Every structure is written in structure tokens, then in C-alpha cells.
Amino acid sequence: MTTFTNVLYQVESETGILTLTVNRPDKLNALNAATIQEIRAAVEQAQQDPAVRGIILTGSGEKSFVAGADIAELTQLDEAAARRAAEQGQQAFRLIEESRKPVIAAVNGFALGGGCELAMACHLRIAADNARFGQPEVNLGLLPGYGGTQRLTQLIGKGKAIELLLTADMIKAEEALRLGLVNHVVPQAELLSFTRQLLQRILTKAPIAVGLCLDAVNAYFDKDRDGYQAEAESFGRCFTSADFREGTSAFLEKRTAAFTGK
Ligand code: COA
Predict the structure, then answer these.
(1) Same-domain pairing of 214 and 160
(2) Which residue's alpha carbon is nearest to atom 11 within ligand 1?
(3) Which of 6, 27, 28 to mutate to test the pocket of ligand 1 (most atoms within 8 A of CB)?
(4) Is residue 2 part of a domain?
(5) What is the Cα–Cα distance from 118 to 148, expressed in whole angstroms?
(6) Closest atom, ligand 1, to C-alpha of 144
(7) Would the CB of 57 count as within 6 Å of ligand 1?
């Protein structure tokens, strides 16, 4: 098990919930390159870790989820290094998106730039009522580099995405909810308990089927895949699982299914 410097990796053994906390509170959890590498390594570790069934991604403290890429570090990059940094960020965030274990962002404050991009790479987003979202990169002479132009467009549509990207406007949690950028808004004090309850509800379902739902939805956005074909193949795959037999038997026997993930 790797230990991390900028990320806390805490697994709750009863539930199988991993809470990954970006932990640079004095910099509002801004993502320097080391933190992005640690997020990537932590997500890879979580995929291999049988004790982990689902992931909550959040930021340290009560003010910020992640306030973006580390601007001080960005100033040190040249064109080639910046392009590599964007590719590395994109790869790390794609791992989150492609996780077969559900990942929920618990957005506890500022989710700006790379922070908004990180939240968007998660499967679901719960916002505390003090959360603020935005892609302020054009204020810095930049555009988002970690997939923001793509995922914002996927989540809220072209017109609204372009407006947020071009104005750099910071929006409140309720507006993010209205736009479909987040799934729920809750009082800050209830953020983690609400997120945990939602994840626990998902973790009572058949894990293979949950993972295949995520994969089929991702296939819709992958130009190299046919989403309908992916769905049909996965539908067939479920019929080879013990959990399909358990889920259908439990229904017919009027009892709660006990899934094993097999
Ligand atoms: N990169 C590097 N450092 C950051 C940061 C970032 N993205 N966001 C915040 N910080 C640092 C500040 O420099 C400050 O550090 P210091 O105490 O050593 O000076 C510390 O975090 C606290 O931030 P501060 O700006 O003092 O807090 P605030 O409450 O006044 O403002 C924000 C909060 C989020 C509005 C403001 O920090 C901000 O605009 N951050 C940048 C957001 C951004 O443009 N992100 C996209 C990056 S591509």
C-alpha cells in the first residue's frame, strides 16, 4: 500500500467506502503535478484493492474542494511541458471516469478550473450549499487542460458550456444544480453523510452490473465505440454472473438479494 503526501486515502472497512481527500488546505487544495500523480496512483490502487467498493472524492477543510491547477507551478512550464501536464491530468481524470467502482465527488467549497474538471470526471457530484463552480482559465490566458471543455459540454450542453468557459463566471451550487452540473445540493454539515448514504445505496446493487452501466454510459462519449453494442455485450455478460442468478431468484422468492460481485 502506497502512502500519499497530498492525498488522504481512508478506507472504511464495514462499508468498503474509500474517502480520497485532496489535502493541501493552505493552497485551497490546488492541484500541483505531484498531487495529480497521487490522485492517479490512489485511483489505480483503489481499483486493485478488494477492500474498496466505492469512492468519495473530496477536499480538505470547509472552504475548498479544489481551487484549480496550481497557478504558481503553471508559470514554470513551457509549451511542451504544459502539453504533457495537460495529457497527464487528462489521463488521471480518465482513470476516475473509467473506474468500475462508483466515484462520487463531495464538493465542499470552491471547484474551480482543475477542481471543476476533477468533479466532472467523477460519476456523480454532490455539492455543499457553499460550493462554487467555474472554469476561470480565460482569466489567466488559458483554457481548461484536464478535459473541462469536453466534460462540461457533455454535462450541461454546448451553449451553457461556452458561456461558462468564455465568461469565467463562478456559479453557486443552486445554479450548478439547475444546469445539471451537480446531482444534489445539501447543507455543508450534511455533505459527507448524504454522499455516504447515496454511495451505500449504490453498493447494495450488483457490482458487476453497476460497473457495466458506467462503462456503457462512457461508451456513448467514446468516438471509437458503439454504445449500443457495448450495452448489448454487457447485457449478455451479466447472464454469466452469479449476481444475475441471485438478483432474479431473490425477486421471485420475495427476498432481498445478497450480491457477491461475482
Ligand atoms: N493555485 C495556486 N495557489 C492557489 C490557488 C491555485 N489555483 N488557489 C488558491 N491558491 C492559494 C493562494 O495563492 C493563497 O496562498 P497564500 O496564502 O500562500 O497566498 C491560498 O491558496 C488562499 O487563497 P486566497 O486567494 O487567499 O483565498 P480567497 O478566499 O481570497 O480566494 C479563490 C479564493 C478561490 C477565489 C482564489 O484563491 C482564486 O481565485 N484562486 C484561483 C482560482 C483559479 O483561477 N483556478 C484555475 C486555475 S487554472
Answers:
(1) no
(2) 27
(3) 28
(4) no
(5) 9
(6) 48
(7) no
Q: Ligand 1 atom closest to Cα of 28?
A: 21
Structural domain including 135 reads 7-203
> Is residue 258 a part of any domain in this protein?
no
Q: Is the pLDDT of residue 3 over 90?
A: no
How far apart, in whole angstroms, are the C-alpha atoms of residue 127 and residue 19? Answer: 16
In this prediction, residue 53 carries a pLDDT of 98
- Does ligand 1 have an atom closer than 6 angstroms to the CB of 28? yes
Q: Among 203, 222, 242, which residue terminates a domain?
A: 203
Q: Is 137 in the pocket of ligand 1 (CB under 6 A)?
A: yes
CB distance 86 to ligand 1 below 6 Å:
no
Q: Do 13 and 135 share a domain, yes or no?
A: yes
Count of structural domains within the chain: 2
pLDDT tens by residue, 170-194:
999 999 999 999 999 999 999 999 9
Per-residue pLDDT at 148 exceeds 90: yes
CB within 8 Å of 187: residues ≥ 6 apart: 128, 129
pTM exceeds 0.85 for this model? yes
